[in-house]
Amino acid sequence: MGDNRGLRTQITTSDEIRSWCHQSRLPGDRPELSDVASVLIASGFLTPAGRAIMVRRISTGLRIPTLPSGFGDLRRLQRAIAQTDHQLANPMMPSVVAAVMRNRLGGLQRRRDEVRKIVVTGKGVFAGGTRAIRRERRENIYLEIEERERLFGGLMCTPTPNVNTAGYVRRAGTAAFDRLAGVVGQFAARSGHPEAAEWAGQILSPDRGDSGTVAATPGSAAFVDGYETLLFTAGHFYDRIVANPAWRSDHFEVQRTQVNLHAELAEIAADVIALRAVRLDLDRAKANGGFDRSFAEHIDRRETTLRPVWTELIDRVQALGEVAGVVESAAVELRVLAEYNRTTTIDDRIDELIARSGDREISVDNAKRLTEQVRSGEEQLRIYRDVLQGNIARISPAAGRELPARYEPN
Q1: Most exposed of 306, 324, 351, 404 (fewest Cβ within 10 Å)?
Q2: Which residues touch 100 (CB under 8 Å, ≥6 apart)?
Q3: Cβ neighbours for 122, distance < 8 A, ≥ 6 positions apart
Q4: Global pTM?
């Protein structure tokens, strides 16, 4: 069996996750979250009943909202809408640029509305007919319209790598923004207004002067804050587990019944979202009433009380990462076992071939004897054919032979 001594080096520690959250950055290029992980994280914005319904639907294999390109594009789309709207709020923007940007903003909003229809009222996901709705409600798998609206709002906040870094607008729609820059550049050339060219630069690099953005670093995944970093890390570990064939194999059938990974991810998301909301409220309260020393001390004590909650969430995510590492290690062992089994089958086939060598020798001898018999038979057939040909020649009438008029013996 394989050596497990290197297993611990593959598992992420709590200190590493804490450091990632502190820096709002994960090392390495990370794939975007799957649709299932995105929906589970967005379920953290639902009520407990709505969250339980989404977990139940995913656990039983029922359909959930999906996007062909993933919900990371929805997050980028929403970010582009917010940034464009922010640009339009500037009263100093040239009118021609504002007209082009308003047109672009309308197109982005229409695309977002199309995604909203898929999530909230899309056919083929949730029941549509009265009878089907009643049946799903009895089975407690029907998500009400209000909850779907909350789900859509949560999906617009899907943790997405590098969505707030420089160049995110290009990923949101490179061709469209390039066309927009071309229009602005043509306007600047005709009118000679330098501010138009400046606006083109801001459109293509909208993060300039934006304090909410994170500097992009090649080979890393940056996020808005530590809370989003933790949510993405949890979803990343979840995807690694459920996508691994070893986890879905018979070897882990008992373990799959002991833990509901879908519910675990949804609950982690709900706690992270709730903790972030509380921390923001505390910061806001301290900013507004911090001049009162006793009030500020009270806020500090409450913040200290929340620190164990953050540590507990990090430990829960680390536990998911440990499961992912163990499952991936087990997958390697299962592949080795499969090779062992295949090799054993080859060995059995070789042994069988060797065991049948005596039969093959007998068969070869039989074939040789048969060949000799056939050849002997061919000789006999040739003799028989010659004899038969002679007999036929003898009984055939001779050409040009005349009989005497009368038979006279000698």
Answers
A1: 404
A2: 180, 183, 184
A3: 65
A4: 0.71
Q: What is the largest CA-CA distance in the chain?
A: 167
How would residue 206 be classed by pLDDT, with cut points 50, 70 and 90?
A: very low
pLDDT at residue 184 is higher than 50: no
Provide the pLDDT for residue 237. Answer: 93
Q: Looking at this protein, which amino acid is placed at residue 63?
A: R
Burial class from Cβ neighbours inside 10 Å (0-12, 13-18, 19+) for residue 140 reads exposed
- The 8-class DSSP code of residue 127 comes to -
Sorted by sequence, the CB contacts under 8 Å of residue 134 that are 6+ apart come out as none
- pLDDT for the residue 288: 76
Question: Residue 265 and residue 40: Cα distance in Å, rounded?
Answer: 7
Highest mean pLDDT among 267-276, 322-331, 342-351 belongs to 267-276
pLDDT for 179 = 43
**Do 12 and 328 form a contact (C-beta atoms < 8 A)?**
no
Instruction: With H, G, I as helix, E, B as strand and everything else as coil, classify residue 379.
Output: helix
Cα angle 296, 300, 301; round to 5? 120
| Cβ-contact 183, 175 below 8 angstroms | no
For 230-274, how does the pLDDT look when each residue is reduced to its tens digit (9 = 90+)? 999 999 999 998 998 888 877 777 777 888 899 999 999 999 999
Q: Which two structure tokens, joined as six digits, stand for 364?
A: 């070869």
Task: Give Rg (Cα) of the chain.
Answer: 40
| Number of H-type helices and E-type strands within the chain | 14, 2
**String of DSSP letters for 175-207:** HHHHHHHHHHHHHHHHH--HHHHHHHHHHHSTT
* Rounded average pLDDT over 311-319: 92
| DSSP character at residue 21 | H
